[in-house]
C-alpha cells in the first residue's frame, strides 16, 4: 500500500458481539505536502471498506467467568482477519484498541478487570500490533465517552468540522447532535446553543482536535448515557413488569407488543402451544397499548435534582431544536428501516412511521411468517421483536428526548443560511431527527470517532506555542486532570520506539549504487560536486547508523572507480587515486570515523619484530578503546574503534560481551582485518628503542586522532 499510509484497528466489544473495524489514512506529515488549501483546513481523511469489518457473537462479556479463553476462543479470529488486510510491514506501527461498552459495564468490577488484563496480555503476547499502554488501548469505556466518539464521527462525516460556513444552523451553530441506542444502553451527545452552553458550562466536555495544517479547534459538547435503556435491557424490564402485573393470573400473559397469535417464552423463544405451569407470552397486537405500557420505563417520574432532566431523572441541558439537528444510529436506524422502512426513505416522518407500525403489529403472526418465508422480511427474531422496539424508540425519541413529531406537530423554524440550506437539503439533514446507517458510504460508528481523534493527534501543531494535546476532558482551561489523550503523537516513532521530529526516513531511503549510476552520465567535476552536496545533505537528514551504512556503500563504489595510469603521462593516474582518497577522507570526517580497510592509509613498519614486543602494561585504562564520549557503557558498542586501530592482546572485561558479536577479539592479532601489519599508538603498550622515543614516534595524537608521525625509517606505500 506504500509508505505514506497509516493504519488503525479498533474492536467494538458490545453486549451482543465484538466487531472489528479497520481504518486507513495518509501519514499527516506526507499528506500536508500535497494537500489543497481546503484539505489543509480539514481533519485527516480516513477511509474504510466493508470487507475490513467483521463481527462475531457472542460478546466479550460472556467470558466473565473464564477470562483466559477470551483470546484464543474469541479474539483470535478477528486478529486473523485484520492481518489479511493490513500490510505485514505496517503491523508493528498499527495501533490496536479494544473498547468495551454496555455489556461489560454490567459485569462486576473484578470481572471487568480480569478480562481487560487478559485481553491486553493476549494481544501483546500473540500479535505485533502497537499496544504500548494497556490502560489506554484496552478499556471499558463510559457511555459518555462512547457518545462523544459518536458525535465526532457524525460531524466528521457530515462536514460540520471542516466547512462550518456550509453548516450554519443559526445562532452560530454548525454541528449536529448524535443519538445511539444499542442492546444495553443509549447515548446522546450535542453542542448546546450559546445560552445553554454558558449556563451549563460545568456539564460540558472540552474536545480538542487539530486540522491538517496544524491549527487547533475546540468544541464544548454535552454527553450523557442511560445504562439499561438499550432495546434488550428495556425489553427485559418490560417483561418483568408484565409478570408483576399478572402475578395472580393464569400462566399465559397477554403481550400487546407481540404480533397477534405469537407465543414465546419470557426469554423470547417461540413456542407452538401453551406450556402448562410455565409462564408464556401471547401476542395481542395492540400497539397503542404497547406504547402505554412501555412509557413507564422512561423513568420520567424520577426526581430531577438538577433541572432540566430528560430520562430517568438525569440532567441534560435544554435542547434547542431550531439549531440542534440529530442523527440516530444503530437501533434508531434498524428499527425504523428494518421491518418498517420503505425503500428510499430520506427522513423520519412520525405519522407515516407510526401508521406502518400499527399495520404491521395488527397482523396475525401467521401472515408475518409467510412474508418471512418469502424473504420479504428480516429473520424471525427481528420480526417478533419489531413492535416492542418501535414502541420503545417512539417513546424515547418523543416523550423522553422531546424530538418534535414530524407529520403531527409544528416543526421549529429552520433558521439557516442559503448555502447551508442547499447543502442540508442535498444531505437530507434539516429535520430535527434523521436515522442513518452510512454517510457517503462510510458507516457511522463511534469507533470512527475514536480513530479520527487518534489521526488528528498525529498532526504536528502549526506553532511551537500550541502545546495543548488532542483529546478531551473537563471543560476547564489548560489540560484538565481527567484529560483523555488521543493515544497518538505528532512525533513519528523511530524503530527504537522513541519519537523524532519530522522523521523523513521513508522519503530518504536511497541506495548508494543508484546514486552513482545516475551520476556516471555527468562529467567528473559534476560527479564530485553532486556527491559532495549529497553527502552534506544526507548528513543532516539521516540517523548516524544509516549514515554509516550509506558511507560504506559509497566508499566501496568509489574504490571500484579508481583507475591509476598504466604508463607515462606524468603520474596522472596517481593523482586520480589521491583525489578519490581525499574525497574519502572528507566523507569520513562528515560521516564519522569507521574502521575499515579503506578508511585510513596503512603503512608497513620496517625493523625487527622484537622492536614491537608488548610490555606488561596495565590493560584497564578506562574506555581507552571506546568511541563513547562520556565513558558510559551504553556508547561502547564497538571495541577499540575510536582510533581505527586494533591493539594486540588487550582484554577489556567491560566489553567482554561484544566479543560474541564479532566486534573484537580478546586477543587481536598484529594483522588487522585487511591483512596489513599495523602499529599501535599506545606508548603504555610498546617498548620502543630510544631513538624512536626521542623522535616522538609512537605518541598518541590529540583527541585520539588516528593521525601518526611518520618514522624516519618508514616510507608510505603510495609514495614509493
From TrEMBL:
<feature type="region of interest" description="Disordered">
    <location>
        <begin position="611"/>
        <end position="641"/>
    </location>
</feature>
<keyword id="KW-0378">Hydrolase</keyword>
<protein>
    <recommendedName>
        <fullName>Golgi apyrase</fullName>
    </recommendedName>
</protein>
<dbReference type="InterPro" id="IPR000407">
    <property type="entry name" value="GDA1_CD39_NTPase"/>
</dbReference>
<feature type="binding site">
    <location>
        <begin position="183"/>
        <end position="187"/>
    </location>
    <ligand>
        <name>ATP</name>
    </ligand>
</feature>
<comment type="similarity">
    <text>Belongs to the GDA1/CD39 NTPase family.</text>
</comment>
<dbReference type="GO" id="GO:0017111">
    <property type="term" value="F:ribonucleoside triphosphate phosphatase activity"/>
</dbReference>
<keyword id="KW-0067">ATP-binding</keyword>
<dbReference type="GO" id="GO:0045134">
    <property type="term" value="F:UDP phosphatase activity"/>
</dbReference>
<dbReference type="GO" id="GO:0005524">
    <property type="term" value="F:ATP binding"/>
</dbReference>
<keyword id="KW-0472">Membrane</keyword>
<feature type="compositionally biased region" description="Gly residues">
    <location>
        <begin position="566"/>
        <end position="576"/>
    </location>
</feature>
<dbReference type="GO" id="GO:0046036">
    <property type="term" value="P:CTP metabolic process"/>
</dbReference>
<feature type="transmembrane region" description="Helical">
    <location>
        <begin position="524"/>
        <end position="541"/>
    </location>
</feature>
<dbReference type="GO" id="GO:0016020">
    <property type="term" value="C:membrane"/>
</dbReference>
<dbReference type="GO" id="GO:0004382">
    <property type="term" value="F:GDP phosphatase activity"/>
</dbReference>
<keyword id="KW-0547">Nucleotide-binding</keyword>
<feature type="region of interest" description="Disordered">
    <location>
        <begin position="559"/>
        <end position="578"/>
    </location>
</feature>
<keyword id="KW-1133">Transmembrane helix</keyword>
<feature type="active site" description="Proton acceptor">
    <location>
        <position position="146"/>
    </location>
</feature>
<dbReference type="GO" id="GO:0006256">
    <property type="term" value="P:UDP catabolic process"/>
</dbReference>
<dbReference type="Pfam" id="PF01150">
    <property type="entry name" value="GDA1_CD39"/>
</dbReference>
<keyword id="KW-0812">Transmembrane</keyword>
<dbReference type="GO" id="GO:0005794">
    <property type="term" value="C:Golgi apparatus"/>
</dbReference>
<feature type="region of interest" description="Disordered">
    <location>
        <begin position="696"/>
        <end position="720"/>
    </location>
</feature>
